[in-house]
Design goal:
Its cofactor is Mg(2+). Homodimer. By secondary structure, the chain is an alpha/beta fold. The chain has one domain: Undecaprenyl pyrophosphate synthetase. 47% of the residues lie in helices and 13% in strands. The protein contains ten helices and six strands; from the N terminus they run H-E-H-H-H-E-H-E-H-E-H-H-H-E-E-H. A six-stranded parallel β-sheet has the order 3-4-2-1-5-6, with helices on both faces. Helix 1 runs parallel beside helix 10 and helix 2 crosses helix 3.
Length: 253
């Protein structure tokens, strides 16, 4: 082990000791950003960047598991990304399919796809559904894999599902309008039944949500990290937790 490794490990332990149990988030959302830029700076291909990012996912989940996080949401592919050239999109989908399969095969986490699966290629949607089915009874951390995900699309899908449900029950639009509130819509989101994210982390230095968990993140705390996702380390994660623990959450007040 090099001197740098020793110093890094010591610093990570020091940051970990500064975390308070009461300041551990139940649900962490992560925008895994910067794969292409990471690869470009190293003279690699876009696919190599996405693969390096995929290889870092299990590390993150292990860190979350270690400190007691209950739910993690990983944004792997947006609805906007589906418009990318086929030469880039198909390899990326293949990387995502293998990554999700590997997470399911680990048998440690319960996989839950969130996104518009109907927009995805059939084989990709099948892989996501198979991962969910094979881990349904796993007694471990819940991992939402957001593929073909967009916050506006999620809200539109939730409203559509709500209207269809009431139409089947014979409720008129006028009757629904009289009782409709935010909880009715929340019950039809991709993450229904889950706690909203306490902390949302975005890597790569970008400071915007881009449509990630638009509804659920109304009261979330945000942490923007300069590191590209493939280079995101445990100490970066611990710093995010430390910053979260130091904040006074107001929940909109």
């Amino acid at each position: 082990m090099s001197v740098g490794d020793v110093v890094y490990a010591a610093y990570a332990r020091r940051v970990a000791r500064q975390l308070k149990p009461a300041g551990i988030p139940r649900h962490v959302g992560v925008m895994l950003d910067g794969n292409r830029r990471w690869a470009k700076e190293r003279g690699g291909s876009t696919a190599q960047g996405h693969q390096a990012g995929a290889d870092n996912i299990a590390n993150l989940l292990s860190w979350c598991e270690e400190i007691g996080v209950e739910v993690v949401t990983l944004w792997l592919l947006s609805t906007d990304n589906l418009a990318r050239p086929a030469g880039e999109l198909r390899p990326l989908l293949g990387i995502i399919e293998r990554a999700v399969t590997d997470l399911a095969d680990a048998g440690r986490w319960r996989i839950h796809p969130v996104g518009a699966l109907d927009l995805l290629p059939v084989e990709t949607a099948q892989v996501l559904k198979a991962a969910a089915d094979s881990t349904r009874d796993v007694d471990g951390m819940l991992v939402n894999v957001a593929v073909g995900y967009g916050g506006r699309r999620e809200i539109a899908d939730a409203v559509r599902s709500l209207l269809q449900e009431h139409a089947r029950a014979g409720t008129t639009i006028e009757e629904l309008a009289e009782v409709l509130d935010v909880e009715h819509i929340a019950e039809h989101l991709y993450t229904k039944g889950q706690p909203d994210p306490d902390l949302v982390i975005r890597t790569s230095g970008e400071q915007r949500l881009g449509g990630f968990l638009l509804w659920q993140s109304a009261h979330s705390e945000f942490y923007f990290c300069e590191a590209y996702w493939p280079a995101f380390r445990k100490v970066d994660f611990l710093r995010a937790l430390r910053a979260y623990g130091e904040r006074r959450r107001r929940f909109g007040a």
